[in-house]
Amino acid sequence: MRRSTFESFDGTEIAYYQWGDDDAATPPVVLHHGFAANALANWVTPGVVDALTAAGHRVVGIDARGHGTSGKSDDPARYGDAKMSRDLSGLFDVLGADRVHLAGYSMGGVVSLVTAGQDKRVERLVVGGIGGRVVQPAAPGGRQATDVMVAALLAEDPNTVPVAGRGLRALADRVGADRPSLAAIARADRTDAVDVDAITAPTLVLVGQDDAIAADPEVLAAAIGGGAQLRLLSGDHLSALQDPRFVSSIVDFFA
Question: Which residues contact 93 (CB under 8 A, 6 or more apart)?
Answer without folding.
Answer: none
